Amino acid sequence: MDNIPNLWLKALPALKSDGSKYNRGHCVVLGGPVASTGAARLSARAALRIGAGLVSVACDPSSLIVYATALQAVMTKPVKDEAAFAELMADRRITAVLLGPAAGITARTKAFVLTALRAGKACVLDADALTVFQDQPTELFDVIRSPVLLTPHEGEFSRLFGKVTDREGDALRAAQQSGAVVLLKGADTVIAAPDGRILINRAAPPTLATAGSGDVLAGFAGGLMAQGMDVFDAACAAAWIHAEAARVFGPGLISEDLSEAVPQVLRHLGR
Ligand SMILES: NC(=O)C1=CN([C@@H]2O[C@H](COP(=O)(O)OP(=O)(O)OC[C@H]3O[C@@H](n4cnc5c(N)ncnc54)[C@H](O)[C@@H]3O)[C@@H](O)[C@H]2O)[C@@H](O)CC1
Ligand SMILES: Nc1ncnc2c1ncn2[C@@H]1O[C@H](COP(=O)(O)OP(=O)(O)O)[C@@H](O)[C@H]1O
Hints:
Blueprint: E1 26-30, H1 38-49, E2 54-59, H2 64-70, E3 75-78, H3 82-89, E4 96-99, H4 107-118, E5 123-125, H5 128-131, H6 137-141, E6 148-150, H7 154-161, H8 167-178, E7 181-184, E8 189-192, E9 198-201, H9 213-226, H10 231-249, H11 255-268
Parallel strand pairs: 1-2, 1-4, 2-3, 4-5, 5-6, 6-7
Antiparallel strand pairs: 7-8, 8-9
The structure holds ligand NAX and adenosine-5'-diphosphate.
Domain YjeF C-terminal: 4-269
Organism: Asticcacaulis benevestitus DSM 16100 = ATCC BAA-896
Keywords: ATP-binding, Lyase, NAD, NADP, Nucleotide-binding
């Protein structure tokens, strides 16, 4: 079935007239090392634009200066090691965590993913947060109990689940195997849940084939999950809004433009 707004519009977070930033969710994005900060910054801005009340980039103290200088509304949280990250994850006000964009294929990234999952956080796992489990994917699947979204492109998908031969069947099998919602990116994006739900986001503009656009998509999903949206609905809404933002912006799109087109898309959706 095609991914159309009527399927998730009622679940899309709406503002309350007496609401505050504290009841719009807090999304934490894991920041990469000092020379690779752009991807996490794109994700964090996307999470904020889609409506999370608070967004923080958690980064190593050695890269804090870059994030703190570059970010404005997005906050920073220095985390020097796994213990510090575990302490952050124990904060119940943090309602979603996004890990992976340019995080690095390192033991640290793997440990942080496991820590977030063991803390029971709603998580979006993208890019390096998937690749770090390529040698032993069951190490990841065994700790998935909370609402989790995996957002692989075909390369990342093949590292965890094997080569893609049938995008719909393979995405569904991956969701069932991992216990997570799987969003398999591409010109047509497949979103599959472990319970068998599956939607296809068709006809996204090819302008989305640009560096960092997947980081923005992960940020949209993380920002919606932080506001309490069901993970499958959040994945479908994020994919649709991502494509629509590209359509609204038109030619010459770079990833930075996607978040800036979100207000127009949300207005058309009645938010
Ligand atoms: N501005 C930034 O800082 C950006 C950082 N990025 C980060 O760069 C790191 C590497 O990500 P990449 O995805 O480039 O590299 P990866 O090495 O993880 O995956 C790319 C490889 O996967 C294979 N592949 C198969 N199907 C593919 C498909 N449909 N789309 C893409 N690759 C496919 C190809 O062999 C390709 O060489 C990640 O940490 C990522 O988050 C990227 O997101 C781009 C933007
Ligand atoms: N030809 C295309 N048409 C429409 N959307 C595309 C096309 N190619 C890629 N996309 C979308 O662009 C995004 C690319 O994400 P990804 O591969 O993770 O790139 P990056 O790592 O640079 O962020 C995905 O959302 C994917 O669905």
